[in-house]
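Protein in question quoted in full.
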Amino acid sequence: ALRAAGFITRDPRVVERKKPGQPGARKKFQFSKR
């Protein structure tokens, strides 16, 4: 649906990849010592 060429190039939002070893791209684990 959102695969239109114009939409992709015009979309300012960039999806942050999910990092390995983390529950999510931005979500870090709970601080245990803080």
Q: What stands out?
A: The mean pLDDT is 61. Helices lie at 5-10. DSSP finds one helix and no strands in the chain. The radius of gyration is 16 Å.
